[in-house]
Amino acid sequence: MSKQAKVRSTYRCSECGWETGKWVGRCGECQAWGSVAEAGTPTLRTAAAPVSSPAVPIGQVSVTESIARSSGVPELDRVLGGGLVPGAAILLAGEPGVGKSTLLLEVAAQTARVHHRTLYVTGEESASQVRLRADRTGGVHDDLFLAAETDLGAVLTHIEEVRPTLLVVDSIQTIGASGIEGVPGGVTQVKEVAAALIRVAKLRNITTVIVGHVTKDGSIAGPRVLEHLVDVVLHFEGDRNSRFRMVRAMKNRFGPVDEVGCFDLSSDGIAAVTDPTGLFIEHHAQEVAGTCVAVTMEGRRPLLAEVQALVSPAPLDRPRRTVSGVDGSRVDLVLAVLFRHCALPLQSYDVFAATVGGARLQDPAADLALAVALASSHLGVPAPRGAIAIGEIGLAGELRRVRDLPQRVAEAARLGFKVAVVPRDRSSHDPGQARSRFVDGLEVIEVDDVHSALLTLRLTRGR
């Protein structure tokens, strides 16, 4: 009498999809408590089946069906690498209220205006609510079809009936598949819904844009496999107190992943911002101490942003450090370098550092502008009008070269700045004195360290 083979149970985390052979109270991947439960019985192996189309040499594959077309929103086309590719699956994630639905409704309306059928499926709002937004933003068109559904089967039926060129699903966490374990938004449901939508998109050459939620730490909610299934992953970023929004490509099979698009979100809808530099610079009527302009790179686009600092005597034993738009650890590093290498005793002062217009400076090239703003505020001496500072600061007080320096300098020259202090090219053999050159009317001064940069801008008394 043969013994029956024992089927080994598998346990899966409902938060991230991590699997293990035994039950544990805490997920080994996402560290969530109480999220591991027994998964369903594993299915049998799939046997060989007939192919849908024979394999052909790669040189004989036609590329005409995969040529991108414009979405009608130039900044989004910039991020996507040219536009919407037929059959592509795009995942757009962002915080609640950042403007994801407004952006995609604008893309859907622009697609409908060029006589391409568009299907907008909403699972979070009613059809009348979306219609009100479309009336406000001017997005009503006969080729834009709207459906309010939360069932995957109903969504697939709408696709068969409408046969759209562009499909927008807002959002995947609200769509559920009948017959699949779990609730909508769970790991199993999200994987099944995403797989079904992507399968239809590839089969019918439908560009599919899926809206995804994010967790409290900013990552995309659901299993990580969702990001692997889609062709493009976009993050929609923005500050609630600012109208400025940015779309950043985190994954792109059809273009670069170091590109961003800029938008202006208002009550009338969302508009592309082709030159966002002016949003991050304050135009002062006179010279003001404690300010300096930095040039950062957002993708391949140089952006100028003003850094402001306020240094005042600390009334308490522990000085305050308050930052907005800049990294607090970089501020501490710059303060230590100014104290050690520039003889500026800022350790006993309250320090406040911020950016203009809600800009977030994560580029280390903004270190020198931050140092100039701090020194200027402490000494009460404004930096020269029309000056910018570019460079990463090292612990020894040296200035390190940054990427795309010619593009940064050219952008500053285009906007009418007069002086740029930048790190010296280490390949030169004449260290010591500052070296200057001119680029389109902009004087570029190369220096070796922070102290030399402050001396050039007349913001230190010397050693």
From TrEMBL:
SUPFAM superfamilies: P-loop containing nucleoside triphosphate hydrolases (SSF52540), Ribosomal protein S5 domain 2-like (SSF54211). GO terms for cellular component: cytosol. The keyword Lipoprotein does not apply. Keywords: ATP-binding, DNA damage, DNA repair, DNA-binding, Hydrolase, Metal-binding, Nucleotide-binding, Stress response, Zinc, Zinc-finger. GO terms for molecular function: ATP binding; ATP-dependent DNA damage sensor activity; damaged DNA binding; hydrolase activity; zinc ion binding. InterPro entries: AAA+_ATPase (IPR003593), DNA_repair_RadA (IPR004504), P-loop_NTPase (IPR027417), RecA_ATP-bd (IPR020588), Ribosomal_Su5_D2-typ_SF (IPR020568), Ribsml_uS5_D2-typ_fold_subgr (IPR014721), Rubredoxin_2 (IPR041166). Residues 65-214 form the RecA family profile domain. Residues 350-463 are annotated as: Lon-protease-like. GO terms for biological process: recombinational repair. DNA-dependent ATPase involved in processing of recombination intermediates, plays a role in repairing DNA breaks. Stimulates the branch migration of RecA-mediated strand transfer reactions, allowing the 3' invading strand to extend heteroduplex DNA faster. Binds ssDNA in the presence of ADP but not other nucleotides, has ATPase activity that is stimulated by ssDNA and various branched DNA structures, but inhibited by SSB. Does not have RecA's homology-searching function. The middle region has homology to RecA with ATPase motifs including the RadA KNRFG motif, while the C-terminus is homologous to Lon protease. This is DNA repair protein RadA. The gene is radA.
